Description:
Radius of gyration of chain B: 25 Å
Shape of chain A: globular
Radius of gyration of chain A: 26 Å
Number of helices of chain B: 14
Shape of chain B: globular
Distance between the termini of chain A: 37 Å
Largest interface: A-B, 30 and 22 residues
Helix content of chain A: 25-40%
Strand content of chain B: 5-15%
Strand order of the largest sheet of chain A: 6-7-8-3-9-10
Low-confidence stretches of chain A: 1-7
Number of strands of chain A: 22
Strand content of chain A: 15-25%
Oligomer: heterodimer
CATH superfamily of one domain in chain B: MetI-like
Distance between the termini of chain B: 8 Å
Number of strands of chain B: 5
Amino acid sequence: METSSLVTDNLLEVRDLVVEFTTEKGTIQAVKHVNFSLAKGETIGIVGESGSGKSVTSLSIMRLIQEPVGKIASGEIIFDSPKMGKVDLLSLSKDEMQELRGNDIAMIFQEPMTSLNPVYTCGNQVMEAILLHQQVSVEEAKKRTLALFDRVKLPRVKKIFNAYPHELSGGQKQRVMIAMALSCNPSLLIADEPTTALDVTVQEAILDIVQDLRYDEETSVIFITHDLGVVAEISDHVMVMYKGETVEKGDVWDIFNEPQHPYTKGLLACRPRLDFKMKVLATVNDFMEVDEEGKLIEKENNKYKSVGEALLLNFETEDEIKDRTKDLMMRPAILEVNNLKKYFPLKKNWLSRHREYVKAVDDVSFKVYPGVTLGLVGESGCGKTTLGRLLLRLLEPTSGEVTFQGENILTLKGNEMRRLRKDMQIIFQDPYSSLNPRIAIGEAIMEPMRLFKVHKNDKERKNRVVELLETVSLQADHFNRYPHEFSGGQRQRICIARALALDPKFVVCDESVSALDVSVQAQVLNLLNELKEKFHFTYIFISHDLSVVKFMADRMIVMNKGKIEEMGFAEDIYNYPQKAYTKNLIKAIPKGDLEDVRKAQLRRKLEKEKRMQAKM
Amino acid sequence: MLSFIAKRFFSGFMIIVGVVIVVFFLFFALPGDPVSMMVGQRTDDITREAIRKELGLDQSLPAQLYLYFRDLSPVSIHKDTPQEQQKYDYTSLLCFGESVLVLKVPYLRRSFQTNRKVSEIIGEKLILTVILALAAMFFATIVGISLGVMAALRQNTFWDHFIVTNSVVGISTPSFVAASLVSLFFGYMLGPYLGLNGIGSLFVTGIDGRELHLENLILPAFTLGIRPLAIIVQLTRSSMLEVLSQDYIRTAKAKGLSYYKVIFKHALKNALNPVITAISGWLASLLAGAFFVERIFDYKGLGYETIQAVYNLDLPIVIGATLIVASFFVVVNIIVDLLYALVDPRVRLR
């Protein structure tokens, strides 16, 4: 235990917090005896996967746990309020808590898309918070709102003031959310995965805003994320949570330099890296296991002794890379795309013939070679998903041609196209919604086989399904279970098994791991690579996450506004990006290595001294 | 937006045309003879023929339909005679020869029975039905939304179950059953204590002429409001529950807003969208659906009048009343769409 609870100048001290949820299966402790403290002007990063209790911890501080399902069972949350002095948030009355919320403690949520009320203008919603907590006139509140919008670097602030949430992009909405959170100069800001749904370049800008905040206002920040790279960049301290428990906490440098707990080691090792190419990703399970009492322990005689070792053992040298990529492009292309275009009409104006279009895919040509994984990256709205669907003819293109194994698939009739569908499969982004909740997973995997009359009868098909389930590390007795009984990672495996059922030659993975936790993501990525070795697939791997694409892809395409920005071998593009767009994209990714942690710490120290001097 | 409204108006117009055609042919499928209804059985054939001719019943069905549409159309061609002028009360636009292109108020003809203008009769009765429907809807909306919000806020408690169970009963009770029961209990048995009548219209012609009896509105409006009330309760409840689980409600709470402000400012406005559609849809159908209730309470509105007209085979009134109700449906639905756009800014994009 830290001794910080004795130190009196902490802004926030969470002591022995226990949060319970009542479910059909009984009472579950979502947060188990969590302790941490936060000094003024400091940032603590809380890291963990879904279900680790990190969001519940933050909601408990706001006292926003959904009652009566959830309940703060015990503990103390001591907060040093500017007005009330030191108070235990858990013993405050509802009215007193309301007074604090949004005023002294503010929160930014993960989903900017749904966190703003659709029926009020953005300006209105920020003004509401100001008018609520501060005795100012409506005009003054409006002035302050516009100033806040300026501060979070929103463009054309007056227009956005009167705009409804649906008229803004995701990044802009998150800025409005931040403006709302900052509106009353809170002394504590809780950011719950504020950048998870956003592009890396937008993420960088948002992180900058949060950084500036602590320099300018000495705001303390609780930053919750699953991305260790982001933590490295922004926090002074790190707390790692797993299944409601704190597994490790300490200074950011210590955590990254010398992780003690096997789970932390696993987390650090399982991230795909930008700086070098890995053969296989280490997984959390390489480091830890659960003993008979249900406790996490370090795996005995584990594969890797440390994070460094895990990286070193799987490191692919430059010679190996050269070897591997040398004859990738020797064989004839399996898929050839020529001048492919897809325009979506923006406004239909029936009076005049003139129409406006969104050019989702604008004159794109490339080749895909057999056995090669082609990565497709770009920011949201760049057309990568549309392109993926065009390749499978799930969407009809405006013009251009797609040649698959020598046939132009765009001219094929229904029957002929169906025949080809067998060879081309897609794995979607969201494993939660892409499985029918009312169909047992075995049936779901069998369905395409029946459709294409693969194998003689259902018995043979069933054997094949069991085989497939085992291929994706599930068990034969999972056949009759329903999707809700599986975790996200398992569901994605089921989707993979379904895609494999027809022995396709060509698989499109559309953001297939984006919805998964990093530790699970590593397992799925490894699986996809194993399958590729085994069945000689050709993948098109679509993702907004450049480090994931870097790990998976041999060749890659960077897309921007429907056009190909850059195309080539993945290594070349990462090491020597040619275009400014690609450079920006790569620069914006938080790397999370020690070098970065040190730089970030140094920068913060300098910044602090500079402000101190400026004050004097 | 404008083209959207224009399209809606056009389809509404087509619906009204269709309604006229269907009602017109249905009428002739009804058993009985309007002429004998008018003059009784014992009249001689010559008189009958004369009346038949006067009403236009001697012509072929398609011809009759054509003439009816001609009377209905605001722009039409008529003979330029004083009689025609008096009959249609038109404004001439263009003269050519004996005919004239005119602009007029749609002519709904005269009642077979009383020879009064149909538009006058309907106008008189419609007011009563509109008052009844509005009163019913007002009651249903206010009580329904309040109960719905209450049930949502106390989800899974006794009050929630109580409200939901009762609303199911409300939805499944046919209006004539409800009307009979309400009339019996509140009007007849409890009537003397409550000062309510089992039957009676809003205006009663007494010794001092027409008297307003507002208390006669209460029971029919209550009965008519039961079904929409029950549906509004359920809609409000489910829509409110859904909205309350949305992320922006959490944002509103995190802002430090009070419980009531979160509920009434942030949740209710979002939750009301489906309710508005239901309310407006029901308003239109209440106008039409008041038939049984008006009949049982002897409330002399449009529904009462229409039923009488069907008994008497009084074609002009039947068509006229149907037409008015259909037009109401169309206009109300267009208004609903506009309201929708007003409440939810996201709809305005389309």
